[in-house]
Amino acid sequence: MRQLKAEEMSLLVFHYSYQNIQITSQRMENTTTYMQGQNI
Q1: Which residues contact 4 (CB under 8 A, 6 or more apart)?
Q2: In whole angstroms, what is the distance from residue 33 CA to residue 11 CA?
Q3: Start-end of H helices in 1-40
Q4: What tens digit of pLDDT does each residue of 12-21 get?
Q5: What is the dihedral of CA 9, 14, 19, 21, to 10 degrees?
Q6: How distant, in Å, are the alpha carbons of 3, 11, 22, 31, 32 from that of 26?
Q7: Is the model's pTM score more than 0.85?
Q8: Cα–Cα distance between 28 and 40 in angstroms, integer?
Q9: Per-residue pLDDT tens over the stretch 3-40
């Protein structure tokens, strides 16, 4: 397996971090919607 260049590594890290942020914000939206539904 060849060594990844620093640029490739940072791109990979950025990509995965970005995905995690999207998943987290989606979960928070779902939780907020759920909590609003409970108040009705």
Answers
A1: 12
A2: 33
A3: 6-39
A4: 999 999 999 9
A5: 140
A6: 34, 23, 6, 9, 10
A7: no
A8: 19
A9: 879 999 999 999 999 999 999 999 999 999 988 888 75
